[in-house]
Amino acid sequence: MPIIESNYKPSLLFKNVHLNTVYKTLFYSKKNTYKRERITTKDNDFLDLDFSINNSNTLVIALHGLEGSSKSKYIISVVNYLNNNNIDCVAVNFRGCSGEDNNNIYSYNSGQTEDITTIINYILTNCNYKNIVLLGYSMGGNITLKYLGETAKIPPQIKGGIAISTPCDLEGSSIALSSWYNTVYIKRFMRSLKKKTLLKLEKFPDCKIDKNAIAKAKTFTDFDNAVTAPLFGYKNAQDYWRQCSSKQFLKEIKLPTLIINALDDTFLSKSCYPFDEAKTNNNLFLETPKYGGHVGFNSSKYGKDLLWSENRILNYINHIISK
């Protein structure tokens, strides 16, 4: 499928990649009152789902990025926007991200599609939606694409997916995030991840994870070697990235799927822009605006936020559910 020419043309202010990346986190102030439902998993754990509904026949399952939650500003923004346009939403909290630690020593990773299957099955059993669309941001985008590409039998209610600012190649993204210009972001991720992991070790004192390796971790290579790989049964960080990167699954996607990755996104490597895969898969649409930052895509006119990405998401949802 041809690459989509984007119409995202931000003001001079949002041509600054770092401002575009952090703008919603700093300045988006609207709230959302979710209705939380807790579901159990096969491994005696739980997932907290935050619903925001107005009795539509379409539901969007929104998946946050690394160390995000249903309270992330970009999630609240898109949920509010879609609700205002008569689309129901459920904001997923990955394990350990809902404000309460999960039961097991492991929590989530960038390829954990088993929990998405659990969530979808719960919704199909307890709700009655004609259309369901998966929407993932960053890590959530990688999980969305991996699910759509690797799952042999997807329920007919699932009409397609949307992935925003997605690290399709986890190793490439990890290398990009270790660059000096991402120092602020990587420090923030490491601080949060290490804090959670050290609390886990207090709960599970017999765990063999190396506490010193956690304390010394400065990059995702360090952290994934020390924590993610051993907890989830991978040989090392590279093995984890190789198995969980969504790029290898894109050729198998059979439902309409939109990827929006800004070309100035400092979190992404060149390998995170799947041009070849999009050109050879009629179900895969790739949009690469020149600007946008990471989960940014802010736009304004006369002081009013035009919510470009939210509107683009809405238009694509309406397009695929009308088929």
Describe this structure in words.
By secondary structure, the protein is α/β, with parallel strands linked by helices. The chain is 38% helix and 16% strand. The protein is built from eleven helices and ten strands. It has helices at 17-27, 73-84, 114-126, 139-150, 170-177, 183-203, 211-216, 220-232, 237-244, 275-280, 308-321, and strands at residues 35-40, 46-52, 58-63, 88-93, 131-137, 158-164, 257-260, 284-287, 300-301, 304-305. The strands form two sheets. The chain has an eight-stranded mixed β-sheet. Strand 9 (300-301) and strand 10 (304-305) form a beta hairpin. Helix 2 (73-84) crosses helix 11. The radius of gyration is 19 Å and the shape is globular. The mean pLDDT is 96.
